[in-house]
Amino acid sequence: MILLLANVVRPTRNAYQQYGCAAKNGSEDLTQEIDWSRFAYAQYVTNDAYLCNSIMIFTSLRTLGVRADLLMMHPEDWSVGNDTVSGRLLLQAIELGVRLAPVRVQHLEGGDSTWADSFTKLLAFNQTQYKRVLHLDSDSTVLDLMDELFFLPSAPVAMPRAYWLEEHTRVLSSQVVLIEPSAKEFDRIIDSLQHRTSQQFDMEIVNDLYGDSCFIIPHRRYDLLTGELKAEDHSKYLGSSDETWDVHAIMNETKFVHFSDWPYPKPWLPASDEQRERASPKCTMITDGELDCRDRDTWYWLYEDFHRRRVQVCGDAFEST
Questions:
Q1: So what's the architecture of 30-218 in CATH?
Q2: Poorest-confidence range of 131-145, 148-162, 283-297?
Q3: Do 223 and 143 meet the contact criterion of CB atoms below 8 Å apart?
Q4: pLDDT in tens, 152-188
Q5: Which of 27, 33, 63, 261 makes the best surface tag, with the fewest CB within 10 Å?
Q6: CB burial class (10 A; 0-12, 13-18, 19+) of residue 104?
């Protein structure tokens, strides 16, 4: 039996160079005359695990040569310094040039801990010192800059569709959110938070408010799920049943990958070999005795690369098992 491993992506010192992802698909065309201080890539953090994730995101953006500001919203009771894990990592963020924005964490009492603090990202609507803020979920990997999104036509919100859901639902994905901060929109967000139901989280709120009026960001390039690599039918992602899936071509054009393989754990949480084997994409037989394992190996690379960078950026205490 022969495994097709040619051009398999492996962890390297610079993962972005391995994929050839530096400054592609438009970012390189933006001129130096732009006032980049009016734009920001944003993260929100509510605990040490997500704080590490966010610093990983910001480190990647710095590696890629980001010119826009980097903004981190964090709990207002956190202090910068070496006395606590969060304090040490905040100090590391400052050294990266990240602007810190202390905020009051927006909890949903009694909600699943995975989502209970997710409302905090909506406070980006109040960051009115910026013309536009691009909020990225931190359980993700950034492969390239997304500067061109800052220059989309004006709209209070721009988001991709949740392409993996049924087409008739037309649900927006809150993993990538381009926001035009304003007092008016922030008031709408606060009103929605105050009148939410126990089943409404950040995704439901933005869909209720902007589902029929937001500018749509193409999901392709900007919102690839790791779970897509094991799908049998890729037509929803590709946008056509005529196009052939080629994971290397997809990765070369992709700028943002979101870890989503439920019930497989997020990449900073422990997982057994059995869980990984069950969750990973399967090799496919393409000719007699010949297997194509590119989807599987790319999926493995994404998780292994995350584990490697997590220790490299945040220290041995954050090593995944």
A1: Alpha-Beta Complex (3.90)
A2: 283-297
A3: no
A4: 999 999 999 999 987 767 889 989 999 999 999 989 9
A5: 33
A6: exposed
State how far the Cα of 14 lies from the Cα of 299, in Å rounded to an integer.
17
**DSSP assignment of 127-189, as one string?**
-TTSSEEEEE-SSEEE-S--GGGGGSPP-SEEE-B-TTS-GGG-PBPTTEEEE---HHHHHHH
Task: Give Rg (Cα) of the chain.
Answer: 20
Element (H, E) at 247: helix 247-253
pTM: 0.87
Bond into 281 cis (ω within 30): no
Order of strands across the sheet that contains 215-216: 99-103, 69-75, 39-44, 132-136, 176-179, 157-159, 215-216
Are the CB atoms for 309 and 56 separated by under 8 Å? yes
Extents of the domains making up the chain = 30-218, 224-315
Gap between the Cα atoms of 205 and 231, Å rounded: 28
pLDDT in tens, 79-118: 999 889 999 999 999 999 999 999 887 665 555 554 445 6
Among residues 107, 104, 114, the alpha carbon closest in space to that of 75 is found at 104
Helix (H, G, I), strand (E, B) or coil at 305: helix
